[in-house]
Amino acid sequence: MSYLRAEEVLPKELIEAIQQYVSGENIYIPCVEKKDWGSQTETRKYYSERNREIYDKSRRGVSTVILAQEYFLSEKSIRRIIKSETAVS
After folding, report:
1. Concatenated DSSP letters for 49-64?
2. Who's near 23: CB < 8 A, 6+ residues apart?
3. Which one of 25, 48, 59, 82 has the fewest CB atoms closer than 10 angstroms to its CB?
4. What is the pLDDT of residues 15-45, one digit of tens each?
5. CB within 8 A of 74, min separation 6: which ones?
C-alpha cells in the first residue's frame, strides 16, 4: 500500500482541521464507493474457474483427498467448494 502526502492532495485548511484531531499519525480514509471483492483484478475469475474445476472433477469421481493434494487445500475446503458449486448448479 502506498501513501499519499496530505500536503500534496489536500488544501491547507483541511489539513489544519484534521491536525486538531490527529497529528503526525497515519489515518485511513475509506472509499466513498465500495467495490466488490475481486472486481478490479482477475482473482474472482481465477477462483471461480478453479472451484468449477474442483466440482467437475469431483463429479467424475476424483476423491476429496486427491483434490486436496492437487489444489493444496484441506479436505474440508474441498467439501465446502463442492457444496457451494452444487448449490449454484
Report:
1. HHHHHHHHHHHTT--H
2. none
3. 25
4. 999 999 998 888 888 888 877 777 778 888 9
5. 68
CB atoms under 10 Å from CB of 57, counted, come to 17
In the DSSP assignment, the letter for residue 89 is -
Please report where in the chains the cell 467495490 appears, as a residue: 35
Residues 6+ apart with CB under 8 A from 78: 54, 58, 64, 67, 68, 71
CA distance 18 to 3: 17
3-state SS of the chain: helix, strand, coil percent to 5? Answer: 55, 0, 45
DSSP-derived secondary structure letter, 72: T
